[in-house]
Amino acid sequence: GCSSVMSVALKITVNQSPSTPPSGTGNPPAICVGKSSILTSGICSVGTATWYLDSAMTTLLPSTTVSPITTTTYFVACVNGDCKSSAQPVIVTVIPTPPAPTSPAATQNSICLGANTTLNATCSKGAIKWFSDINLTTALNSNIVSPTISTTYYAACDLNGCLGSSVSLNITVTICVKSDTVVVTPKCPTCPTNPICPTADDL
After folding, report:
1. What does the pLDDT look like over 138-175, one tens digit per residue?
2. How far is CA 126 from CA 49, 81, 160, in A?
3. Which of 82-91, 116-125, 184-193 has the lowest mean pLDDT?
4. Looking at the DSSP assignment, which residues form a beta bridge with residue 108?
5. How far apart are CA 98 and CA 158, in angstroms?
6. Under DSSP, is residue 202 helix (H, G, I), strand (E, B) or coil?
7. Which of 20, 40, 25 is nearest to 83 (CA)?
8. How far apart are CA 32 and CA 69, in angstroms?
């Protein structure tokens, strides 16, 4: 009998090996808890820069904007089709939130108008920073203050630019009254030693 031969064409696509990606970075490379960093890398000469959560490059990173809660290593590789380059690690450092300050105090919690007092508190981590508002947006230039009205100040610990929760400290300002015979109201016992204390004519 007769026989026939059937041939089938099979196309094999060979992808060019991708290049190793230029070093990546986080912008910024260090963040406070709750903040974000944007991952960037240079352009691949072959393939497309692709980000992964693991060095084995099995889990794609859904976004290059990341907000880790602890220091985390991400991985970037150049991918061309099914071919991947070696992965390059990129570390985003998370600065822990410092504890609230302890022992807030002033050299004098009650002062006469025109006098000053020094604010103090202790940080177990970071440096103490004083603010005039509860939202910690307006920092004081100095911890020596001379308010003209009774004022509440707020202290927080600053660890590499990351602020912890705050504590408050109230300073009471009393208007002193003295006559030519230097009679001082009982509310302001420090007036005799304060030359800035106003006279009765000034009030």
Report:
1. 999 999 999 999 999 999 999 999 999 999 999 998 87
2. 38, 48, 7
3. 184-193
4. none
5. 7
6. helix
7. 20
8. 9
